[in-house]
Amino acid sequence: xxxxxxxxxxxxxxxxxxxxxxxxxxxxxxxxxxxxxxxxxxxxxxxxxxxxxxxxxxxxxxxxxxxxxxxxxxxxxxxxxxxxxxxxxxxxxxxxxxxxxxxxxxxxxxxxxxxxxxxxxxxxxxxxxxxxxxxxxxxxxxxxxxxxxxxxxxxxxxxxxxxxxxxxxxxxxxxxxxxxxxxxxxxxxxxxxxxxxxxxxxxxxxxxxxxxxxxxxxxxxxxxxxxxxxxxxxxxxxxxxxxxxxxxxxxxxxxxxxxxxxxxxxxxxxxxxxxxxxxxxxxxxxxxxxxxxxxxxxxxxxxxxxxxxxxxxxxxxxxxxxxxxxxxxxxxxxxxxxxxxxxxxxxxxxxxxxxxxxxxxxxxxxxxxxxxxxxxxxxxxxxxxxxxxxxxxxxxxxxxxxxxxxxxxxxxxxxxxxxxxxxxxxxxxxxxxxxxxxxxxxx
Length: 443
Ligand code: FES
Ligand SMILES: [Fe+2]
Fold this sequence. Notes:
alpha+beta, 8-stranded antiparallel sheet, binds FE2/S2 (inorganic) cluster
């Protein structure tokens, strides 16, 4: 059981909170580059509980700043994005992407514009994503050296989906691997599957064994099951500081990806998913099917989305949500066509973690041995956040961004009886790896 104080420290992300301060040490994927058009309307952006605006100026540069104008706090969301900056519509003060006040027309010259600065974040664009650094350093740390960021940008696919709950429970859904055989595949009888169907190995034994360990990037688990003939089916997954996961939903050898659980505020999270278009994964393989060719219920593709609005929390929301009980189909549940009654793997995870409430009450839980990865990850996050607060120790992956390059998740079947971490190293060495991006050489 996690103590109440631990639960509060783990889940609150606003300015001045223990975890909020830890998160502000890292680059944060905030928007898709396509959300911002040169001289187009600014976007309201909630991030770590702070209300920001994002805009793209006439030269294509991106600005992300506190939405309040430093004059009298009118919202710059209403501003005019024109000729290289955002102009507040109250008294006409204008700010460039770095937050410099470049015009102060409401005062007779000379004014005092050099003394005024909007609170702007550092920004970079990479892989079709706008990354924001909200910390206090003048020189931001390097971007995380994910394999996926070493790939050519046109080979990377990106999707954003908002989730209405705290980042931690969303993230923990990803490292809770024992739910797969129930929530997603509880209705699947292995006798109805061909042995080469990827789902086969997860349903043949629904209570796998685990190894887990701390790693340089966070934590790692390996779920494993004996699948006969001296072979073992392995599923490796990672938690990576401060809010990333890598899931075993693809073949280990090509599954370069990163899944971010970015806190918008304490009760809303943006799932930011970057993956290699050429990988063999759940997204690239055909929909899972039974031996007779009929699709496995509940594995429907394509997430139905609501149109984005300009609200603080109006971006990338799913059409199935708490207001319509995630479109649960009780008949499908009762007839066991879909174990959960909810169609879509992502939606099933979304429904489950949202159903827990905005922030899980950790004192109400009863964690089991199968939840050790969750316990360990919480501990690792808390210890790093407290070490930052108490000793000023930088958390993993900030200075040493290269540690992420060693992280991979995925499944494989192996006759190799090596110790699990050795097996991991062997598999990684035999996997497809990107050449290091020359843009990253200096990082
Ligand atoms: S409040 Fe923005 S210019 Fe006055
Ligand atoms: Fe899941």
